[in-house]
Amino acid sequence: MDGCIFCEIAEKKLHFQIVHEDSDVIAFEDMNPQAPVHILILPRKHIVDLLHLSSTDEVLVGKIHLVAKKIAKEKRIERRFRIICNCGEEAGQSVGHLHFHLLGGRRLGWPPG
Ligand code: 5GP
Ligand code: ZN
Question: What ligand is nearest to the CA atom of residue 43?
Answer without folding.
Answer: 2
